[in-house]
Amino acid sequence: MDDRAIVMLDPEGRVASCTAEAERVTGWPAGALAGQHFSVLSPPGDDVPGKLESTAGRGRLEEEGWRVRKDGSRFFANVVITALFDERHRVRGFEAVIRDLTDRDVDGEAPRDSEARLRLLVQSVQDYGIFMLDQGGHITSWNAGAERIKGWSADEIIGRHFSVFYPPEDLAAGKPARELEIAAEEGRLEDEGWRIRKDGTRFWANVVITALFDGQRRLQGFGKVTRDMTDRRNAVEALRESEERFRLLVQSVQDYGIFMLDQGGHISSWNAGAERIKGWSAEEAIGQHFSMFYPPEDIAAGKPARELEIAVEEGRLEDEGWRVRKDGTRFWANVVITALFDRQRRLQGFGKVTRDMTERRNAEQALRERRRLVGHLVDAQEVERRRIAWDVHDESIQSMVAVGMRLQLLASRLPEPHAGAVTGLDEAVRAAVARLRGLVSRLRPPELDRHGLVDAVSTYVDEVAGRWGLAHTLRDELTAEPSPAAAITVYRICQEALSNVHKHARATRVDLHLSTVDNGTFVRITDDGAGTASDEAGAGHFGLVEMHERAEAAHGWLSVTSAPGRGTAVEFWLPMLPDAAGLEP
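^ that's the sequence the OP posted. Answer follows.
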């Protein structure tokens, strides 16, 4: 006859079905056992759910021990539990095979031999103090682990009351007796607290007391397992103290706003620096959404949510921009948001550090403005220097040419030898004019001497645009060549305009158009750069002072139109004035 009771369990450990032998072994009718949890067959304190969980992980569990029948009587059994899996390796249930070993040997070994082996195992355990108490709490057994942890030998401790391990304050509170009462009522008790060694020192203990009943549910005593947790408690306490010191450090920082956000962006902590910078107290800020620090235009653009998304994706985000204080004023902030994950990479929230950078930004802007003004001053000085040089050049040449013409007229009216002397003076004047032209020749672009205006400008544009990486075009619609003086001015203004595009416009393309308009030369230069506000375009922005003065000195005009993001257009017109050289004979 098969003496194995087979019980089928669902994934939660409830009985789904059983064999007829199960009724004889367990005392439960098959119909009554169905639907019961498997733990009804185990004594109190037996962690059946934990064993099933272990079986699901390992696939199989075998053990020997006491089991309980429906009438409360106990029987000694061999139990084999096997996990059953579906095709996706998910637990779909368990098979439990129970063999009653109470009255017979198995493979020649009696239950009492198994108990002897178990006793030997308990005695040799070093990391746990395992001992027995009688119904009154007196010690009846003692293992090596108990001696190592508590300091008493078996001869010294057996027969004494277990309250000897408790500190005076617990004894005064009646804790030992109360723990036995709870264990008897509930089957077991678990506690952590201070205990006393033989030498009087204290250690932090984890204690489990299990009530032991016979087959008739009569209390036979208690099993007590003690573990020394002092090292773990010290480590936890050290970590707690470290965290507390760090918390106090963060709370006291004044120059940085340091606070925490939950997964949704709501504030969960707030330090003194955050209160100083932003103006809200901790009571006002905690629980609010951090988007309240952003100006309306950033909120409308969805910036707060986008910053959290980037922090989650990349681990952190750093940004600079305007933020809003409690009183509505704005400040320029440097912000770092760090995503906080647990060991399973699950998002726990965010850490946010904010620094007020308004003063630094103002200082940088002031420095840039100072440099811009100094640059304009230098440009203006250079314009003035060049204008003076040209004035000296023009006035001197024209005056000396006029003197030469008068000398020629005088020589034609005087008889010899006086006419020869005047002619000699005229030749001296001509030599002086030549020397003056040599002195100021460096102010005239040599390209204009080698080529005409259009070729000179085209050569220059090709050279610098290629070097600066600018795409460019030049369209020539001149129907009349300007005078040499006008050509020099056109060339110089084109140089200045292209230099400004390179230095300031951040452009990728520039286009030039030269044409003859109203008996003068008209030039239009456009770029696709950053542009500027219309009220700034004609006010010396991008170093336009020199170009204006060049055009005005040549009796022409220059205008600038620009818009942010739409580039800049420089237009100028110069009349075809007669060159000073035309006064020469």
